[in-house]
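Late entry, oxalic acid complex.
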Amino acid sequence: MTVLVAISGWEVDDWVARLSKLLPDRKVVALGEPFDRRDVHYVVTWKHPPGALAGLPNLAAIFSLGAGVDHIMSDPRLPDVPVARVVDPDLTNRMSEYVVLHALAHLRQLPRYLGQQAARVWEDDRFQPAAGDVRVGVMGLGVLGEDAARKLSTMGFRVAGWSRRRKEIAGLETYAGAEALFAFLARTDILVSLLPLTPDTRGLIDRTLLAGLAKDGPLGGPVLINAGRGGLQVEADILAALEDGTLKAASLDVFETEPLPPDSPLWTHPRVIVTPHNAAMSHPDAIGRLIAEQIRAYEERGELANVVDPAVGY
Ligand code: NDP
Ligand code: OXD
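Prediction complete; structure with ligand written out below:
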């Protein structure tokens, strides 16, 4: 049984070596190397070339190397087999660290003080709002969003969440569905996006959405933190909103085009914090172990965890 590793943008040889060690009774091959298509039972992928997984007659499952699966579900010739994604406590913790870090950075005006430091300016605000004065809204209450929401609550923020289906989460105000989006935005000073990229969510963070955020909050304007996917946001709208005061500041980990092009004005905007799509990454060994365990559980007990619903794309 062959495991096909179909990766672009990451070091494929390292992944072949890692998975070969974890699955010593399998042949592990990289896409591009010679292999018999009939022997492939599993594919491990990160951004495989669209169509590359077609024509694998014995394929049983596809494993995403990430939590997000938009890179898989957007393939128009995707084989009709289960797609499993990464759910890993280490990745979840790291994402919550990112979200809490950036919510606190904006609460405590870090972009402003970094600018002042660069200009050797000593200027203090006597009054700063407390976390308890600030309403955070988390879009996406899945594995990552729920954990981040809980940890933001622990820091004292007033947290609400928005998801596709209604959820009851103790201590959290929850909103669900497109019809509740603007009520959720209207009570939000810091908007955290931890949504997957799907046909329904593409381009959601646009001018209309940003204009729906609370205008009466204590931060002097709303703040956006997007660590979901770049395709969720319209960057021209974010820049325009920063210019006209609709938005006060943003932390962006993901972008419409990655790497962020050198001429993007986001790089140098004084109220934007840019990070290179690394809000949360598990150690590759941990992801490799997770996939090897998934393959064993599937073969021994027919169990496959964290399977994507193809009808909704996440
Ligand atoms: P989950 O699938 O567990 O959660 C997704 C959440 O989004 C769910 O609450 C779901 O609602 C909600 N959702 C999906 N579509 C809609 C919609 N149309 N309207 C409202 N809510 C919607 O995903 P994870 O939490 O594990 O991961 C979220 C995303 O984070 C990933 O897809 C990936 O893009 C991104 N990510 C980014 C990383 C980075 O380093 N920047 C690292 C890892 C992940 P419901 O609960 O009703 O299903
Ligand atoms: C993921 C990511 O989806 O790193 O896991 O973006």
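The domain at 89-274 is CATH 3.40.50.720 (Rossmann fold). Will revisit in the morning.
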